[in-house]
Structures are given as C-alpha cells and as structure tokens.
Design goal:
The structure is a homodimer.
Chain A (H helix, E strand, L loop, with lengths): L3 H6 L5 E3 L8 H9 L4 E4 L5 H14 L4 E6 L8 H18 L17 H8 L5 E5 L5 H9 L3 E6 L2 H9 L4 E5 L5 E2 L14 H11 L4 E4 L5 H9 L4 E4 L13 H7 L7 E4 L7 E4 L2 H6 L14 H12 L22 H8 L5
Parallel strand pairs in A: 1-9, 2-3, 3-4, 4-5, 5-6, 6-8, 8-9
Antiparallel strand pairs in A: 7-11, 10-11
Chain lengths: ~350, ~350
C-alpha cells in the first residue's frame, strides 16, 4: 500500500536515492526514477550551466518525478588566516607528493542555494527540491514553492525536525548517525547530539506530523522494511548505490568501498570544514578526524584538491573524501534500476 | 513463535532486561522474570556477600531463568601518577564543594569476574551468565559452563562478534551506539568503530551463526518488533526500565531522565575510565566527555565518589554518572512486569 508520501511525490516505491554531490549526476537519478523510486540530482558542486544540462538530461530521459538537492549553508567570509594555517597543516603532504602548495585564492567548491540557482530551476520546475543544512531564506523558499515543488530537508535531531515542520516542509529526512556524507545538522554543531537511526527515527516520527523519511544504515530490502516499520513513510539510500555503473563514483572510492577499510568510517571535517562520514584515510587519521584547524565549510576543500588529484592520478585514495555510511554491505555493481527494485522487494 | 534463543534460555518473551550496575539489583530482575522475560543481576559492583544475598532473593522469588552479569576487564596495575593527575583535574570541584580531596588509597569500585565469583555462583548455578568487555579466561569460562549456564557477551563490531563466536558463546549481544552505559568494546578502543544499531545488527546477524540479541535504542513495542525484523533473536533493553519502581535508580538520575537534559547524551570516560553513554553533565562537559586525564578503567571512579555523594546529598546530579541511551522516550514509572509485557506487545 503506497504511503501518503508516495502519493504526494508520485512514487511507485517508497525509496529516495540520496543525492551524493561529487559522486553522481543525472545518470544515477534517471536509472532510479525508471525503477519507480525518486532519483536525485545533487547540485551543491555544480555550476548553473551544469545544473541546466543535467536537468535537460533528466527531463529527456524520464517523465517520472525527480529531486534536485542543494546545500543551504551560510557562505563564510574569506578567512585568510585560517586558510594559511590549514595550508601549513597540509604542507608536509605537499612536500611528500612533490607538488606546489595550493593558490591561496582558490575558491570554495560548494555554493549555497541562491537566487541564480532558483532562476535556473524555474525553467525546469523540478517536482521535488531537497535541502541540506536547514532551509534557504524564506523568499528563496517561496520561489521554489511557486512552481509547485515539494520541499524536503534533513533533520539530525528532534529539534531540527520541529524547526523544519514549523517552516512548512512537506517531509523530513531523519538522518541517522550511520549515514554517509555530510551531516545535515544546522541547529547545533555538537556531534554528541547525533543519534543512530534506531533512536532518531521513531523519536522524530513521534514529534512531527509531516511524513518522515529514514536515512542512515539502510542497505537492503530487510533494512528498508524495518525503517518503514519504525514509522518512516519512505527511506533515503545513498552508499548502497555507489558501486552502480550509473554512479560517478571515482575508481579509488569504488576500490575503498570494496576493501576491508570500508568497515571503519568516521565523521570528519578535514575534507570540507563540516562533519561528514567517510571511510577513514590519511588526513582523517593524521589530522583529525575532526580537526580544529580545518577552516569553516566549505573552505577546507580547496587546499586539499591538488593533493587529491595527484594521489588519484597515482591510483591512491589517500587524499580523497571516501564518503560512505556504516553499512556498505549492500553495495553491488549492478544497474541502479535493478538495485532499486531489489531494495523494494519487501515493500508491497 | 518463540525463537531458538527463547527455547534455549527458556523464555516466554524475546526480551532481556539489560544489567545496569549501580542502578538495579534483584528486585528489577525478579519483576522482569515474572513477566516471562530474562531479568538480569549486574554483579560488577557487588561484593561476594551481596552477590549471594541477591541470588538468594531471586531464587526465593521466582523459578524462571535469570541472568547474572559480570565485567571481565583486565584490572590495571596501580598507577599513582595517573591518579594524582586525575585528582588534580578534579581539585577545583573539591574546592567548590568544600570537601577534602579523596584518599589516594581509595580502591576501584568494579572487580572483573574471578575465581571467587565463580565459586560464589557455583552454589546457585544461574542458568544464564553474561559478560561485558569480552570473556573471562578460558578456565573461568569453563567453570561457568560446567553447571550448564548459557553464556552471552556483547559485541560492538563485526570483529568482536566473530571473536565471541569462535570462543563458543551461546548468543551475542549486538550493542549499538545508541545504548546507555558502558560500551562493551574489547578488541578496539577506537570510538569510530562503534556503529548505530541499524547498521551493526544486520551486519552481525550476517557474520555469525549464533543467535544475536539487539541492544541500543530499543524503547517500545515498535522498536522491539523492528529489531526482531532485522534478524535479532531477542532484544536487550536497559534505559527504558530505569524509572520502574523496582529499579534502584537514584533520585537525581530519575530526575535527569525526565528532564530535557536527557535529549543529550555522550560517550564519556570521566566516570570510570572506559567510554560509557550517559546524559551530559558537568564533568563530561568541562573535562571531556572523553578526557585523556581519566585513569584506566575502573580507576577513574574513586576520585569522583566524594563529589558525587556531596552533590547528591544536595539534590544535584552534577557529579553522578547518569547512564542513559539515546532514546529515553519509553521510560515509565510503572512496574517492570507490566512494562515488559507492553514491550512485548507486538511479539506473537
């Protein structure tokens, strides 16, 4: 029986493919839409032209509903001192890899949702828009609503869920601590407030009236069904899609996901400045995983980019963010359409 | 339909009351046994005479199976320097509360399972013995098995579950990160290895052949059912019993559990030297929650005991370990027998 959320979003299956900026584009979203679930296009690391191209690709490939995802952090002011300290912390790596330290002027790699992005979207009217790190300013949110989009956002605590409900979101993604990638936390920066899915999900379900989408640790048909039994109206799944051929997951990332290293992930701020869960690798081990030296999000990224490129060109993921959740056991090198249907096997 | 584990342990319900040293004794165990679940007596903080008295009380009150629980850490050598540093870190608190700093000779408050404890148990032949922090030495474990006891122990990683299975435990408690009290971790001290129940439970179920008991975040009939649907043969529930009249939970602990403060817990080593989840309070906030100054388990406890007593005598839980999991929403001031039946409402 479809949930009210499925009806609202027009979904055959109660499954949302989690937007994974940097690891996928329209191809994965399309493959998931074709299975009857909600494919997502992560826009946080895309320029406006790239967003338009990707949306054209999705609309050309499918008539089904899809989701576009944006970050909505506040862009920090330039902080040259913090950046200089960060480059200094990374200097031994630059020396080791024999590359020049990065240009201090290198810009951030992630822009928050803004008026330009809203204008770009208006031409496409994506049926679902999801946000991470809270919500954009009211006037921006109003523009999104004007074309009829349903709005989702992530909560990592009961307080965040209540905050989102008060601002009228259509559904709330309860992001358990198991989830890979960036924590959506926005009312607190206290990592101790972050709860496992098993504790977070039912508490958010009790606290709000809007539908709740479970995220974190969902990796197969059994965990999908368990999340629904805990009151979720749908699930959002990321990590499990990372080995699909339609994902843009890098070679070193794919390798790490299939290695024993994938058993140990941690929340780290070294790759962006905000806590995100990834497989533990060198800078996480040696500088963090949470480093007081990392400049504010998203300014930590630029200084690592040359290290990442050089290492990846040598087949090493030592300096790449290897985002992953705490359960990689569901990753399969099969089409995302088929994987989605397998994940939905217990949804009837 | 009873699970194989219920048959093995002789349980009507697939529920184990988690042993909570310092917060309960035979009264809670008896009340839970009377509901058809497995009541547990935590022995880690009891002397031999107290253990005997409690076992007499249980055997006089019920014919049902019950569990006795022991820690099996390695007792650290005396470490006067570390203790002195720790007392120094606590000195401002002693000054503030106007009490003498503790006697350096004050002993640890928790003994590992040993030959004397095994001898005390032999007279009672408890049907189930569970361990925390791994397993005791093979000859001690052999003594336990000799009277026919079933042996359980906690795993916080897949590796720990496999280690326990190799050593022949009858069932494994998968302790998710949401759980209150001491982490059972024993093959690693890396907190990043600790997973939420939603990720840990299905991965342990896949990795071992013995029955798996789910712990962490289980607070009502719905979460019990979800844990069973994830492959658990039973659940172990602690926090949810802490407000029952049969529990020995202190007044300040009961108060904290019913306050908004209970929404924020953390893993801390300040109360014992090993990471344990409790509601965040002063020494956790001001010295930790994980402090490099805390001496090895269980030596951190003694130096805080005078602070705790003085504060509690003034109605304050500022210096008390307020053990709790990440979901206190199921706590009820009702009899543990009734609470157990409510928790089992969806088990048929």
């Amino acid at each position: 029986m479809p949930t009210a959320l499925q009806d609202m979003l027009g979904l055959e299956l109660p499954i949302i493919q989690a937007p994974m900026a940097g690891a996928q584009g329209s191809a994965l979203a399309i493959a998931v839409c074709r299975a009857g679930a909600l494919g997502s296009l992560p826009c946080a690391m895309l320029g406006l032209d790239a967003i338009r191209q990707e949306l054209k690709a999705i609309q050309a490939a499918t008539d089904r509903p899809y989701n576009v995802n944006f970050f909505c952090h506040t862009q920090p002011p330039p902080c040259d001192d913090a950046q200089a300290l960060w480059r200094q912390a990374l200097a031994p790596y630059h020396a080791e890899l024999g590359i020049d330290p990065p240009n201090p002027g290198a810009g951030p790699s992630r822009k928050p949702f803004d008026a330009e992005a809203a204008s770009a979207l208006e031409a496409f009217k994506p049926p679902v828009v999801s946000f991470h790190f809270g919500l954009p300013a009211p006037e921006l949110l109003e523009r999104v609503r004007r074309w009829g989009a349903r709005v989702l956002s992530s909560a990592t605590t009961v307080e965040e869920a209540q905050w989102l409900q008060e601002r009228g979101v259509d559904a709330i993604i309860a992001q358990g601590l198991e989830a890979g990638g960036h924590r959506g936390m926005f009312l607190t920066d206290n990592l101790h407030s972050q709860m496992g899915t098993f504790a977070l999900l039912p508490q958010i379900v009790k606290a709000v009236k809007v539908p709740v989408i479970a995220a974190g640790g969902i990796a197969d048909a059994q965990t999908v069904a368990a999340a629904l039994s805990l009151g979720a109206a749908a699930v959002q799944i990321g990590t499990t899609y990372l080995l699909c051929p339609e994902a843009g997951t890098s070679a070193v990332h794919r390798q790490a996901l299939q290695s024993p290293a994938a058993r140990l992930s941690a929340l780290t701020n070294v790759y962006s400045g905000r806590p995100a869960r990834g497989i533990v690798n060198r800078p996480m081990r040696e500088l963090g995983p949470m480093s007081p030296l990392a400049p504010p999000f998203p300014l930590a990224t630029a200084a690592l980019s040359a290290l990442r490129s050089k290492a990846e060109s040598q087949g090493s993921g030592d300096f790449s963010p290897l985002w992953a959740g705490q359960n990689v056991s569901g990753c399969r090198e099969i089409s995302a359409t088929l994987l989605t249907r397998q994940l939905a096997a217990n949804c009837t």
